[in-house]
């Protein structure tokens, strides 16, 4: 910086006020150097100059004495100079201001120049008062500046613009880059490699790890078909049913994806997967509900459509997709359902196969099959693959019956494998994955128990003259819920000289008859009433205009019949009265479900319980229970009122010996008193106390050293027109369900529907004639050598009951524990409410139960053999009713 005050800056004139005075002259006093004289006062010559003519000599000039300062009123103090008028300098106008040159230290050079510089300052003009003292902006309630309409619009468009940029970046640019990376990093598996994984057999093991058998899918040995070997009608049926946009999409359908999202949000049904996506899903065996899986699936589907033709893609899809019946690929499915080559399929048959792709696990459900067939045909019309005339003329192509698996080693365990497969599907291993993992399944089945069940079941019917008789046996462990033995009858039947898969009778619901009465008693006990309570147990009692009968005098009781006595002799009138007037039907249904009976609407089982009328009290009408559910429910009584769900699987490992599923120990549930295990135990114990005498009364024995309890059951046949008179006394279903503390066993013997069945010598069958001895043979052989067992002791509910006579003692001969035996009336201890004169009553044409005879001559007794399953006619069991 130049500090010489007497020098001017470049491009500036010297300041005359700063010029040195001429030699010999003195400058003005310091107080007056910067202060011009008043505009109207005479100008004072510069100090040091002689006075000019006509000008007064100022004080302080040479030759004049100095004048003392004076302060006159209204004058400024000494040293004060009056400022010049605005815009003037010494009475003259100010010259235009010139800015000093900027130094390197100024803002303009160091990058911090003030953008708010006001040019008016340099111009010398007055500053705007608003610029000097700006007003505070107007604020809203939240303390924010209030914007004008223009400012608001500008701000709004700024937000929208930035949002669009963010949306494009997040949802278009970034996904596009990621998709390209994924596209080049994935491969599309070939149908040949997929088929190799789908052909693996499933190996079953017993609970001890010993081999049980293998299950190979019926389509496991099929070949991969070429595009020429699959007719267009089959391809068109699959396209119309599964992906109508297949011919035009690029592997995924945006509208389909949006539709699937909408269905998910609104609770609708239907997905958005294309045929290409379904192929990738099946080929990779990955159905995880994750975004990563879906993203990779989209990339692979797109790549597949860029790599292969549409004909190749639909061919690959039809070669690996699952159709049901263990058939992977359309070639195997065509044989499994129609025994035809694919090239011979009609459009109607192709429609059924295409329709089953969506629900292959329900291929044997007639209603589902018809619905899917209709859907496929309708969509084929919409896509112009068939005409309306073809649609109207189409007939449902009934599939051939299920045939026996070609692998003989799996046939004896077919019903077990079906139960295992259903159970694993509930745990995430679906039916179309079942044969693709090379699984080894360790079951809960006890090898000894299973062998005994199959042998006893076959022997029980071998000596019977009625070839319509069927049987089933299920054994359950009360302590775990695991199934120890499962016999649903022969796995195949002979139909017109051809073997076909038989029905699983262990999982088929039947009328339980009097084996329903323990649930009646359970509901009664839950009300705080006990087995010492009394009812009128006489025969031929009338209820609401209906006559209810016992089977005969041997099954009748007095007017003061205790519930315990009524259970022992199976008095119908007592339990019909109990449910109708005390417990009502709903609590009986609840008690059965709490024990373990799984109905369609409660547990997803096959059993059904009808509470619309009082037939439930005696196990008739539309109340039907499977043997498997009976074994599970009675296991709850055996397990001190602690209920555990029935299951077949212990562990599943895949081909790499990795654990795919392992059953966890089930926490016991207090069946009959939620949160109160002691009360539930007491209720179950009272049921057991009432059921123990039934064993001896039915001329059955407990296994040596083991206490046991149980109940027989019989459902009478309804005589039809044209049948012989003996059909009126025939029975259609019989039961024996009983247990020890370590095993619960349900045995059913009956026919396929309401048939007039007979035992040896054309005598009616009862729960105690075939089912009872079959139960006894299994229990005796299975528990042989096992430690002795006794039931838990509990106090009686309600009033103290008198001793129940006779007790169940395996050491007492049956003849000594049969207190009543009317040789003139074999009756039916599980008899049903009957009113032959009431067409709308249970025993009339409009009811559910036929009438029972009041008197039937008893056939002569045969000499019982040493085989406990061969007890001869009803007279050999002591109580032919049960």
Task: Give an overview in words.
There is one protein chain. The protein is about 30% helix and about 10% strand. Helix 6 (about 230-240) packs parallel to helix 12, helix 17 packs parallel to helix 19 (about 570-585) and helix 20 packs across helix 21. A five-stranded mixed sheet has the order 4-3-7-17-18, with helices on one face. Strands 9-8-22-21-20 form a five-stranded antiparallel sheet. A two-stranded antiparallel ribbon has the order 1-2. It contains 23 helices and 22 strands. The protein is globular, with a radius of gyration of 51 Å. The longest helix is centred in the first third of the chain and has 37 residues, at about 150-185.
List the helices and strands and how they pair.
Layout: E1 88-89, E2 92-93, H1 107-110, H2 119-123, H3 129-132, H4 149-185, H5 191-198, E3 202-205, E4 211-215, H6 232-242, H7 254-266, H8 275-284, H9 291-307, H10 310-320, E5 322-324, E6 327-328, H11 330-338, H12 347-356, H13 366-382, H14 388-393, H15 414-425, E7 440-443, H16 447-462, E8 470-476, E9 483-487, E10 492-495, E11 498-501, H17 517-526, E12 534-535, E13 541-543, E14 546-548, E15 561-562, H18 563-569, H19 572-583, H20 585-595, H21 627-638, E16 642-643, E17 649-653, E18 659-662, E19 669-670, H22 677-697, E20 709-716, E21 731-740, E22 743-750, H23 767-782
Parallel strand pairs: 3-7
Antiparallel strand pairs: 1-2, 3-4, 5-6, 7-17, 8-9, 8-22, 10-11, 12-15, 13-14, 16-19, 17-18, 20-21, 21-22
